[in-house]
């Protein structure tokens, strides 16, 4: 059972329109393998039958979440690209405090494309350390973590990770912010209550016209996400981010992502770190 060109064209066009993810013909085999489980679950005998179901009223209502989970990539780690967290605490947060973030009593950070939670929980740990080292200077951070995949959001909310996932976390932070399972045969840890309570999770599709955020953000992390979009979509998305970024706020992208040549209202201040100018 193979994914035929006609069905690939229908699916790739739909995925681009709904999720913004570019799906060239070179990804036919990948898409075929990722959707194979859905065909088995639905007891369908061809990708053509899957398309017919997906584009029916019932399919659009019930299958979209499964298609999204199947085609989105969710690679992440604790302390991924660690220089970003150093820049955040040594440069970005002190600069934000200078322009009045502390007086507002809020520090708003958005982990956009949070996957299974490693990034927002890394943020909560490093910011807890910053506040401990600078008592009274930094308001309690409020970290919003969003993703399009319900499956990874469920994992993130549980905040439970296998021991092999926590290797990048420094030993001191492991002792302070991770809770070991009492069952020796269950090699997992859970994020401790304090850093967990700093983070709220929600589902968000970057292709939505409005993100529905109630307040402006001081910092946005969107790393290793826009690489899956074409250049036009990347530029549109960064402009939308900037509408939710406070003047003087920071945007962090992934190490392989660049805004070079893009017409967007932020200036590069460090490798893959951008800042929205102050008025």
UniProtKB/TrEMBL annotation:
One of the GO biological process terms: methylation
Family matches, as CDD domains: AdoMet_MTases (cd02440)
Enzyme's top EC category: transferase
Protein's recorded name: protein-glutamate O-methyltransferase
Keyword presence, Methyltransferase: yes
Keyword vocabulary terms for this entry: Methyltransferase, S-adenosyl-L-methionine, Transferase
Domain CheR-type methyltransferase, first and last residues per copy: 1-279
The keyword Amino-acid biosynthesis is assigned to this record: no
Entry EC number(s): 2.1.1.80
Gene3D superfamilies in the cross-refs: Chemotaxis receptor methyltransferase CheR, N-terminal domain (1.10.155.10), Vaccinia Virus protein VP39 (3.40.50.150)
InterPro entries: Bact_Chemotaxis_MeTrfase (IPR050903), Chemotaxis_MeTrfase_CheR (IPR026024), CheR_C (IPR022642), CheR_MeTrfase (IPR000780), CheR_N (IPR022641), CheR_N_sf (IPR036804), SAM-dependent_MTases_sf (IPR029063)
GO molecular function, one term: protein-glutamate O-methyltransferase activity
Reaction equation(s) it catalyzes: L-glutamyl-[protein] + S-adenosyl-L-methionine = [protein]-L-glutamate 5-O-methyl ester + S-adenosyl-L-homocysteine
């Amino acid at each position: 059972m193979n994914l035929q060109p006609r069905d690939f064209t229908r699916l790739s066009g739909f995925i681009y329109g709904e999720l913004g993810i570019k799906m060239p013909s070179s990804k036919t085999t990948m898409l075929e393998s990722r959707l194979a489980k859905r065909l088995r679950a639905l007891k369908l005998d061809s990708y053509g039958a899957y398309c017919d179901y997906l584009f029916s009223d019932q399919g659009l209502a019930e299958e979209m979440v499964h298609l999204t989970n199947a085609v989105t990539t969710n690679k992440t780690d604790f302390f991924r690209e660690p220089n970003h967290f150093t820049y955040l605490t040594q440069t970005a947060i002190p600069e934000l405090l200078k322009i009045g973030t502390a007086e507002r009593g809020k520090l708003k950070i958005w982990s956009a494309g949070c996957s299974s939670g490693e990034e927002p929980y890394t943020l909560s740990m490093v910011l807890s350390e910053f506040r401990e080292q600078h008592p009274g200077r930094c308001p309690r951070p409020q970290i919003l973590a969003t993703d399009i995949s319900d499956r990874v959001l469920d994992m993130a909310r549980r905040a439970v990770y296998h021991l092999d996932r926590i290797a990048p976390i420094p030993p001191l932070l492991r002792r302070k912010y991770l809770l070991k399972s009492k069952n020796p045969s269950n090699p997992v840890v859970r994020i401790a209550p304090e850093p967990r309570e700093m983070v709220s999770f929600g589902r968000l599709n970057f292709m939505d016209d409005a993100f529905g955020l109630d307040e402006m953000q001081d910092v946005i992390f969107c790393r290793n996400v826009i690489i899956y979009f074409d250049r036009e979509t990347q530029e549109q998305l960064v402009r939308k981010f900037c509408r939710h970024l406070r003047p003087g706020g920071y945007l962090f992208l992934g190490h392989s992502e660049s805004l070079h040549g893009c017409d967007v209202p932020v200036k590069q201040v460090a490798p893959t770190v951008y800042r929205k100018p102050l008025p």
